[in-house]
Specification:
Blueprint (H helix, E strand, L loop, with lengths): L2 H14 L7 H31 L4 H9 L3 H14 L4 H13 L4 H13 L2 H11 L1 H24 L27 H35 L3 H8 L6 H9 L6 H13 L4 H13 L2 H7 L5 H26 L1
Helix pairs in contact: 1-2, 2-7, 2-9, 4-6, 4-8, 5-6, 6-8, 7-8, 7-12, 9-12, 11-13, 11-15, 12-13, 13-15
Length: 321
């Protein structure tokens, strides 16, 4: 299926530009062209499909569903909704407020907030192409588990008191349900509009991510990664998580970096721990969440995810090693 992108990259890098496949520049340009075309085609297709799905799965409907579901199943449902809905941290914050205002328990709401950036639908589909469906399914299950366990722990500790007071007093105005034409034509038009909006918002991050991945793939020596984050370093996974916290990227922008790091010989668990850290507990995301969470809750949130990601990294390395 993806051979067409490889052939296109061959033509651009080696025929059109006349580069040699044996040079670092040729290798990096080939990687860049192949991943740009592959990722953007996948991104457009996935965002369109999710956009059509969102005409049936609106934030308001999510609120009503979660608020009316018994506590146990609500955790699983919140994790699943977080995994299949394309909400970044910017839109997840007002949705977080709305879920609490609608009477959804704090733990269930936090389950959604954890899984939404972590088990991103774009990343899942791209990981299938990169790692295969078995590893991707394991990633999905562990991500859901982290979200559900996190929500249960937060609920058990009664951490509602660490939500900013104003959150309990306002409504979900920013993400209120928008009238959408429910006909087939209307759903297609909404999906196309989502492609323009979301791809227009993330394309630069994707290009930057692919550029970094191409540089890592072509120019950074393999022994650099082997020394600092290779399988012989027992602290490679926590190192990867700590490195990811100051950085920021969305999941789509991280995929080419993941591909390049795997190509350099890093273990799958170490690379996934880095990806999860960057997408779920990056410094910019924590700054946004500070709008709704008090410092003790924010610190617990970051610490829990960091420990969970380290555990997930070691788990993947043990299973796949």
């Amino acid at each position: 299926m993806f051979a067409v992108f490889t052939r296109l990259a061959d033509w651009v890098a080696f025929t059109l530009l006349g580069l040699s496949a044996d040079t670092k520049l040729g290798d990096a340009v080939h990687f860049f062209v192949e991943d740009v075309t592959k990722i953007f085609v996948l991104l457009v297709a996935i965002v369109f499909a999710i956009g059509v799905l969102r005409t049936m799965l609106t934030p308001e409907r999510m609120r009503r569903t979660l608020a009316g579901t018994r506590r146990g199943p609500a955790y699983v449902l919140a994790g699943f909704l977080g995994a299949v809905t394309p909400f970044c941290s910017c839109s997840a914050v007002p949705l977080f407020i709305g879920l609490l205002e609608a009477g959804v328990p704090m733990g269930v709401t936090m389950t959604f907030l954890i899984t939404s950036p972590m088990v991103n639908e774009v990343a899942v589909v791209m990981l299938v192409a990169l790692l295969g469906w078995k590893i991707t399914a394991l990633y999905f299950v562990t991500g859901m588990t982290v979200g559900i366990v996190g929500g249960l722990v937060i609920d058990a500790l009664g951490m509602e008191r660490f939500v900013e007071d104003y959150v309990w007093k306002i409504r979900m105005g920013e993400v209120a349900e928008v009238a959408v034409d429910r006909s087939l034509r209307g759903r297609v038009a909404f999906g196309a509009a989502q492609v323009r909006e979301i791809v227009g918002r993330v394309w630069l991050y994707v290009l930057i991510g692919i550029g970094i991945g191409a540089g890592l793939h072509g120019y950074v020596p393999q022994d650099f990664f082997a020394r600092h984050a290779g399988p012989d370093n027992p602290f490679a996974v926590p190192f990867a998580v700590l490195v990811g916290i100051p950085l920021y990227s969305n999941a789509a922008g991280m995929i080419p970096v993941v591909e390049a790091l795997l190509g350099k010989g890093l273990p799958v668990g170490t690379v996934l721990a880095l990806m999860m850290s960057i997408t779920a507990i990056s410094a910019p995301e924590l700054m946004i969440l500070r709008k709704v969470l008090k410092v003790p809750m924010l610190a617990f949130f970051a610490a829990f995810l960091a420990v969970a990601f380290v555990g997930v990294g070691y788990l993947f390395n043990a299973i796949l090693g």
